[in-house]
Amino acid sequence: MSKDICTCxxxxxxxxxxxxxxxxxxxxxxxxxxxxxxxxRIGRGPVANPELAVVMxxxxxxxxxxxxxxxxxxxxxxxxxSADAHLDxxxxxxxxxASGRAKLDRARPxxxxxxxxIDRLLGPELSDRLDQxxxxxxxxxxxx
Length: 144
Description:
The chain contains 6 helices and 3 strands. The protein has helices spanning 8-26, 33-42, 49-56, 60-72, 98-122, 124-140; strands spanning 47-48, 76-79, 93-96. Strands 1-3-2 form a 3-stranded antiparallel β-sheet.
């Protein structure tokens, strides 16, 4: 059954509003929420750029553009994958540098303040429901 309501527009409006809250709290760290998310994921351990693109829901060219300033700042280091990694020639590994780890550690409390503000504004029930709905929806929309 078709409906005349666009799903994309209200979702984008919501994500823009949430992004504003995170970016506001991360401003003292000179990070955007996208940058914080990248260094946070890379901080969990070395990751290949194609895998990171999938995890972040980005195409490789968008990921490359987002990584450039983080690499230039010296927060992310790149290195060649091992021969048994079965990656294409455009692939490389990413890891946080010592300064990247320090940046992530300094920014984490501000990220937490943003998260706490969103949770407070939404309330615990709606916040949990939103997280679950977003996760479920994302999984259902993955290509087969």
